[in-house]
Protein: YjiS-like domain-containing protein
Amino acid sequence: MPRFSLTQLRYQLRSQLRQYRHYHRSRRQLLALDDRLLDDIGIDRTQALKEGHKAFWKHTPLDEGPYENR
Structure:
């Protein structure tokens, strides 16, 4: 039977919250970019809005890429 570790739970929770903050901050920054900068990174305004308005707990797996048309 696996042992319950409060220390491990705190570490995982802290790590997950840090990741959520990263998603939230990155998406806010993406929404603030102008069209020239969006063009530099290879996405259009529609894609930026779609990604920028996602809920902070949602993420795109690395193998799919965040800016592909889905």
